[in-house]
Design a protein that fits this description.
This protein is an alpha+beta fold and 136 residues long. The protein contains 4 helices and 5 strands, in the order βαβαβααββ. The protein has a 5-stranded mixed beta sheet. Strand 4 and strand 5 form a beta hairpin. The longest helix has 16 residues. Bound molecules: nickel (II) ion (NI).
Amino acid sequence: MKKIAVFRKEHFNAAHRLHNATLSDAKNAELFGKCNNPNYHGHNYELIVKLTGEVNPETGYVYDTKELSKLLKENILERFDHKNLNLDVPEFKSINPTAENIVLVIYDILRAQIDTRYELNLRLYETERNFVEYPA
Ligand code: NI
């Protein structure tokens, strides 16, 4: 069967601070720059979700995008949008909310909700120019 990829783009705003308490303030400033600002700062994140699978002959869909939209709203947007990632999202109590770690957290949440017959790939934009992909 032919495989087709379906994409859904979502958006969320969130604040974060990148900081490693085991390093000096100077080292943190050097490593994380503006993202080390003690009083946090925001990003406009863009998330692109890619699902790959076969067309369901009954519906003509690979995956119903209404269902995908609902899944993303309930599991990702409600958890991340207009939140302080460090303070509001338990996963980031102990790990730095970099784009890399955010995409890994999102992947684990979604992978648990999406049937394994679909391949899942994510791209997360922290800025227009900086983005990550998982799996690589
Ligand atoms: Ni930042």
